[in-house]
Design a protein that fits this description.
The complex is a heterotrimer of chains A (146), B (609) and C (298). Chain A has two domains: 92 residues, Winged helix-like DNA-binding domain superfamily/Winged helix DNA-binding domain (Arc Repressor Mutant, subunit A, Orthogonal Bundle); 46 residues. Helix content of chain A is 62%, strand content 3%. Chain A contains six helices and two strands. A two-stranded antiparallel ribbon of chain A has the order 1-2. In chain A, a hairpin with a 7-residue loop joins strand 1 and strand 2. Chain B folds into three domains: 217 residues, no CATH class; 238 residues, no CATH class; 116 residues, no CATH class. The two termini of chain B are 22 Å apart. In chain B, helix 2 runs parallel beside helix 5 and helix 10 crosses helix 14. Helices cover 58% and strands 4% of the residues of chain B. Chain C is elongated and about 65 Å long. Classes of the chains: A mainly alpha (146), B mainly alpha (609), C alpha/beta (298). Chains in contact: A-C, B-C.
Chain lengths: 146, 609, 298
Amino acid sequence: MVEHGTRHRVERATRKDRNMLFMVDPHSGVPIFRQIMEQVKLAIAAGKLAPGDDLPSVRSLAVPLGVNPMTISKAYNLLEREGILTRRPGRPLMVADLPEAQLGAHRLGELENLLRPAARLARRLDIETDDAVALLRRLLTETEES
Amino acid sequence: MIRTLWKHHPSRNMLAIKWLGMSASTLITWQGIFTYVLAKGHSVDPWLLALGSWFIPALILAVGPFEGRAREFSLTLPVSGRRLWLLHLGTLAYIGGFMLALSMGLQTLVIKLFAAASDPMPAMTEAAGYLDNLWLHGVAWWLILLAATVSDRPHLAAVARDRRWLLRQIATVLACGAGLILLGRIDGVLAPLAVAAVGAIWLHQTWRRVPGSLLLTDLSVSSAPRRVSSEQILRPLPWWRRRPFWLVVLLHTSKHPSMYLVAAPFLALVALWNTQWAPAQVGSEHLGFFYLGITAYMVFTMAASPLFRLAPLDAWPVSRDRLLACFFVPQLLFMGLAYAGGEFMAYHDRDSGSEPLVFNAADHESAGLRMPAHYFHLTTEEPAAITAPDGSLIQPPGDWHVKGLPGGVTLYKPYYTPTGSDIDLVAWQLERASADIFDSAIPAAEFKERYLTVRADGTVAPRGEAVLPLLADHPELRVRRFPGLAPLQVLIVGLLVQLGYVIYLGFFRSHVSSRSRKIAFGVGLGLYMAVHIGQFVLDIAGVIDIDSLAPATFALSDLIVSWAPGGAWGLWVMVILILWPGHLLVRHRFRRAEFAPVREGDSFVDVLG
Amino acid sequence: MNVLELRGVTRAYEKGVNVLDNVDLTVAQGEVIGLLGRNGAGKTTLLRIAMGLLEPQGGSVSVLGLDPRQQPLDVKRQVGYVSEDQTLPSFLSVTEAIDLHRRLYPGWDDALAHELSSRFQMKSDQKLKNLSKGQARQVSLLCAVCHRPPLLLLDEPAGGLDPAMRREFLETAIQMLGESGTTILFSSHHMTDVERLASRLVMIHDGQKWIDSDLDDVREGYCLVMIPADSAPDSAAILSHPRCLTVRRRDDAVRAVFELEPDEALRVATGELGLTDARSMPLNLEDMFIELVGGGRS
């Protein structure tokens, strides 16, 4: 359970820059709806979107992002199917009340997505597992210090 | 290099065969009409001749699409501005010179040929007399016009076609025309030479002024466009500020809308030629049906050429019927107005209309009662003998055979007065003739008292003028109209245009190249022109005789009116009924036509435009 | 009712060359179709047939349940059409042009017109011929869109526009989608615009439809497999694989488009086809376009 004070701060912050949470890159190899899905999941994992928060409406995102509203709809629907978002009757989509364990799993899932290609690269370059793990450890330490 | 530049001159497409061909045929027609009129013995005012043969090419040169001197591409080449300017001068001289030569030169040539014949007609000789001056001065003043046009801001690659430019050009044409008319009376070569010299000097001066490189636009800075609010931009316009829809359509479908200005007087004149007024001005009242070919030509041109640029309008939710109306109704209304104006003039302008009834004394070479041929009657047998009031039989001569009508038709005058007729007979015939020609008869007694006299030798003679001043003496008297002319003219032109247009519309399918469409257009024009010129060719060849056929058609129109149930009004209804199926067919084809532009490679015709 | 239905549409300009060959296309309400194809491939023809400006030699057309050749006015009133050859009369001023369209089309929405005129920054009432190409195109777009037509047919609407204007056009289209549920069929060469706007992709080539599916399915369902040339792969053998669309030899690599996901395609390439040096990668639209219909194909 997030403490009330923290949650309040987070809520204020998100309400101001909700639209800045998402960006799309049509040049990348990833379809736009997937980009949005990933960014929603990332936002939840990072705490920018907390369980119970309303998601920005499709219409309000479409024009600023420059994206077909159906694409955003699709992303939301798929997230709903995955259980990450829920729909209440008569109210906009909101972040589902996910147990902490599930949130934790999500966070790890995000990291896994980023690390998988790295693992593949490591294999292709014939890097030893221990060397790769040591590198990851070093990077984690550096990031903590900065 | 010069070749490349010439190919890229903005007016290059004006050299297109079709464009030159069109203007050539139009110009030739006008000259043909005047020459023909002269050939019939009537004299034509020199200024009228100048109107056709000088003004029209001058106007086309002045306000035609010749304001572009060099394309932007040419400006980037290492060619001096002076060279480009000279190229422009050369192109205009070539195009304009061609038109002028065609117009004036042909006319001069033909008239001179006629005048040089073994037994020349006096009208031709008279015309040949002032023709030399006309073409010499014409060329000289045309040179001035050319100099004025190319000297307008010669440092620019293209002059803007704004109101100021238009006024300037029209003023120049009028000034040069005035010079032509005023000074054209001066005989000899010195005067035109002097004028031409002025033109040449002007050109030279301008050539020196041309800078090393032409500019795309002036240094003049136009005022910045006014900033207006959204409300202003989006405000609905009141009805009087809106351009009428048909005008928008006509302007949008025309490559050079200014040519409507040039075409308008043509349209009006062609319409006028179909009335009885305009031909009467040149002394040929009885040419009612012989301008129908060129009328059809004009109507077809006006309705057919916009189709090439109709594609941009196709997406508008405007019915094809409405678009079709835009291409016919304004032009036909305009011509109708001109026609009505001509008829109005014929009705009211009693001074210029010649007095129709003439009585010559016995010693005159054409003795007896004379009247214009278009009031004559027709018969396929011997003309019926007439019983005079004193019981004697009058046999009108039936020797004027109408060549061109089937079945041996002759024109005859039922009011024939044989030589030696007494005054009562003459007065009786004159009364009968007046009943036919005028809207009310003048009694024989009046003729006998006022207009006839008996000479010492017993022959009857006119009291005063041989040309009886009946219209002058009777202010309410009017020459009667021929109500059958107008509906028959409309019928013939209508059928001609419908036929051509229906065939032409068949070329507007997407698999037909635009080149084919343009060829079809040119062929259509050529055919209408052939119909027009064909008449005169047939006349010269002896197949028909316009001198007899033309007046016969007037009598024929009367006959048709008498056959038609309901008379003249009934004839109009019948004409509309006959034209109706053609109209439906045109409408149907127009609805189904595809006007989308066909993209294809640069063929020869495409480059020429 | 489908907004647009083309069934078996065939259209030829020259004998024997079918620009459109028995093409079927069904567009439901609210869809946004991106029409791709080389220049002259038939995109413009297809749009014109939908608009009723051309008649197909074979097949049938139905727009909003109407036949555009039988009821042209009813169709045109409900369609906004923007194309390079649909020029507005250049002698009209902006105000006159807008006023003309206001009169021609029922359902004109002045509020939308206001919004668009400020988005496009229309500040002066000049004659159309004095405007830049982009500004004139914006006026065309405004006139086409402001009567809120249920269907928009756009033939390279952003051609010749600078990126800022393209973005404004895009936002306008998206707004129409959101507010009115407009159906859009547009052709474009700007793949980023297609990526953003289209929900479905249709590619025309050689008169046929090569692709007609959801944009995302296309993005995820196709990939590029590259094999270095010096391992001498057999192009014909690769092409014979049922999931292989095209094979191109370019520079020093052989490039093959597969209708598979990248991982799956790599498995096929290294396994079935025995191309051990192969690499697979996802395709963005532009690359896919070039691979499929660009030159140098076998």
